[in-house]
Design goal:
Rossmann fold, Helicase, Ruva Protein, domain 3, 36% helix, seven-stranded mixed beta sheet, 331 residues, 2 domains, single chain, alpha/beta
């Protein structure tokens, strides 16, 4: 009895997992999509509903499976971010839900989290206190709360779409947070004013061990080259005014209000906003941050006194300037 043509493994075409993977990778590569092999594997495993490590390359692909792969692949070829297709993004030991309306966590930011976690773990009090300004998906706050046992973490986000994603992620990781004795509180507020009178963090002035932030820092006139960023990331999470530093200035002032003497600020910036940028960079901005009259009245600092010291810039794994550390001066 002859084998039906539709089942004949010699007929060519995309019949196995390997066939589909190779075809997807080649098409992604021709379209200029970064990391085509990784994206192809993620798309196929997601369509099959199995982890990448459990895909068997010689297994046959059903027509329904191939249709699901083709639907996802068509969107990726149109440069929809891979994380939007999967519905999740990985970050350190966590996986968070992401999609339209919230900034996708980047691998570079894991170093920002590491610096903040290391300092929070060494905080002098019985429970370290941390604040995440411009929290987005909530990933930095979640990393702090889950990796630093018995910590008190506050996350601030102004954009309602991003805040909805943060609430979802905090809810999904609530057991992990409580399992290590930590707490995580979300606040709907402007990070530039979150410690002002009547705002949700006003009672934390002078008590916080670590403030971490990945704020919008792209100058308004700059258009990101990557279609995934330009066309799909929320602009409110990207652009920071004419020089890119409008939000950074407000975040720095809020951080200085919140931090105890010796407390640490960890703030991410663009690779062109490090020490070499001089006055256009984040390190110089932090070195010049001083107490205005209202700040002095509320904190006891001397008017005009510098607020931060120990300012150093750090590189990411590609050797590019990526984030700045600064400590609150004694009052």
């Amino acid at each position: 009895m002859s084998t039906p043509w539709a089942e004949d493994p010699t007929r060519g075409g995309r019949t196995t997992v390997r066939d589909v993977l190779v075809d997807a990778e080649r098409r992604l590569e021709r379209a200029g999509v970064p990391s085509p092999a990784v994206d192809a594997a993620e798309i196929v495993s997601h369509a099959l509903g199995v982890p990448r490590g459990r895909m068997f390359l010689l297994d046959a692909m059903s027509e329904d499976d191939k249709v699901r792969v083709e639907q996802l692949l068509a969107r990726r070829l149109a440069r929809v971010p891979l994380q939007h297709l999967l519905g999740t993004a990985s970050f350190r030991y966590l996986e968070v839900a992401v999609g339209p309306g919230v900034f996708i966590p980047r691998p570079e930011t894991e170093l920002v989290a590491e610096a903040a976690i290391r300092d929070l773990m060494a905080a002098p009090g019985p429970r370290g206190v941390a604040v995440d300004l411009c929290s987005g998906s909530g990933i930095l706050a979640l990393a702090l709360a889950t990796e630093c046992p018995e910590s008190q973490v506050h996350a601030v986000e102004w954009d309602e779409a991003a805040l909805a994603w943060a609430r979802r992620n905090v809810d999904e990781h609530r057991s992990a947070i409580e399992g290590v004795g930590s707490s995580l509180t979300l606040h709907h507020a402007d990070a530039r004013r979150a410690a002002e009178p009547g705002e949700p963090l006003a009672e934390l002035i002078g008590t916080v061990d670590v403030v971490v932030s990945n704020p919008p820092y792209i100058p308004d006139r700059m258009v990101p080259r990557e279609p995934e960023v330009r066309d799909h990331e929320p602009h409110v999470a990207l652009f920071g005014g004419p020089d890119g530093l409008d939000v950074v200035r407000g975040v720095a002032r809020t951080a200085a209000l919140l931090l105890r003497p010796g407390g640490l600020l960890v703030i991410e910036h663009a690779d062109v906003q490090g020490d070499d940028a001089g006055p256009a960079g984040v390190p110089d901005l932090l070195r010049g941050l001083s107490a205005d009259p209202e700040f002095a009245r509320r904190t006891g600092a001397s008017p005009g006194s510098l607020l931060l010291d120990g300012i150093v810039d750090r590189l990411d794994l590609a050797g590019r300037p990526r984030f700045t550390l600064a400590r609150r001066r004694p009052r």
